[in-house]
Amino acid sequence: MRIASLVLLVAGAMLQFPAHAQESASATPQCVTDPVQVTDENCYKPPISRLLPFLMRTGRHKIATSVHIAFDQKGYVTSATLNRSTRDKDFDAAIVEWAKGMKLMPGSAGEGDLPLDFNIP
Questions:
Q1: pLDDT score for 27
Q2: 107-121: per-residue pLDDT in tens?
């Protein structure tokens, strides 16, 4: 499953998001951060900065959750649902909207779980 290779780790304001490699490609594609640059040849991750205010508001130092996403052949996320609540409905909604803004590398359509681990030192 293409989503199995995606893992998000947030340490403060840092986001590590390794792009998954195409099955037949020798080079690992890099995700872009500018939505204008989203094409069928690259992937996109929305800025994590829109989630940080919600995380800070919780007052917790560590939150682990996951989002179930479905995506089409072009890599666009077609649906996203939260698997585990953060116990803050606004934060939950922000995570789902953030996930809906992602674009994965083109390939087979599918779905999978995307783990999210937020850690503030």
A1: 55
A2: 899 999 999 988 877
Q: Which CATH architecture has domain 2-18+29-119?
A: 2-Layer Sandwich (3.30)
Indicate the pTM of the whole model: 0.73
Measured in whole angstroms, how far is the alpha carbon of residue 77 from the centre of its chain?
A: 10
Closest CA to 3 of 51, 34, 43: 43
What is d(CA 15, CA 9) in angstroms, rounded to the nearest whole number?
6
Question: Is residue 97 pLDDT above 70, yes or no?
Answer: yes
Token reading at 26: 């020798």
